[in-house]
Amino acid sequence: MYPHQAERLTEILDRHGLEALVASREANVAYVTGFRGVSHTVFEAPQYAVFTRRGTGLVVPAVEIASIVADGIEVDQIACFGDVVATYDERAEPNVKRIRDLSESRVPDAVEALGRVLDALGVRAGTVALDEGRVTHEAWQRIAARLEARRLVPGAEHFLSARRVKGPWEIECLVRGLGIVEEALNEVIAKIAPGMTEREAVTLYQSEVLKRGGEPVPATIATGTRTWIPRPRATDRALRAGEIVRFDVGGVFDGYQATVARTAVAGDPHTRLDEAYRAVQAGLDAALDAIKPGAPGSRPHAAALEATRAAGLTSFTVRDVGHAIGLEAYEPPILADDVDTPFEAGEVLLIELRHFEMGWVGLHAKDTVLVTTGGARSLNRSSHGLVVLD
Asked: Is domain 3-164 in CATH 3.40.350.10, yes or no?
């Protein structure tokens, strides 16, 4: 665990009088341990990560033990549960003995495994905050019974609070992921032309993300009359000369999310489009200028609405103009008119403006910014202006 994460979580323990924080959600488990399990994501098997002042722990299905050992996941206590079918050749690989020892010490279920990790870390009394994000009511009741004298309280908000301010390594991952996404998108922009289908463009984009060491996520590349559909699937519709293309794409680098939205036109933009997009761009710039430590989350929203409408797009309205980003694509705070949460230096925010005029066009632009003591610093290398395709 990096010092920044340990400091943030220890501060939560101290502030709320807790003995332990227990993560269940994928992002929170990764925040505590760096581990991202396949069984949890694909099969919804339970997993837990434990943070205490004395150390960290991890509870996983037994089938994940080989990955944890091979990938060098460093925690103080590991307990596993469930079945695993394997044979072991301890002569071939030094780690095999550890995999075998951990696997053979497995217990029947995740609740007992979590109890054993907490016991091993010396948490035998006091309050334990459990991230309820991926815990069923039945599991909560069973965990509470297993903890006996220890009090169990909800902990999801504590993890979100800790994760808001990013550490240097997290910012580096976010910057590298953003660079991958922008480079991949630039390849698509350089190659897309009338005749290329949405599906072909999405396939090209995702392959470019993979080439650069990122993990692709579902991408939106919509053309023509499909740009004003907020969440369209890629189809075999081909781009035509003079049409709009809306890009809303993303990727993951080392667990951290990145996303970019841009709008392009296949030819010279006509006056109505040019004016509408300039208004959207003015709103995005105003939102960026409104971000600084201590300012409420509602301020960029108000600034964007005022600037966009003043620039001529009087019908513009939007529920929010962005949110934080990190281990998850959508993190608090949301930048909306009813959010008074003040910004903190070290937060990474995704600022976006989208305008859907059904029957005409969809316009979209996003920038990712780091909140610094002096305001917002863009982490993007590409401009959010209207792209004119060659």
From this structure: yes
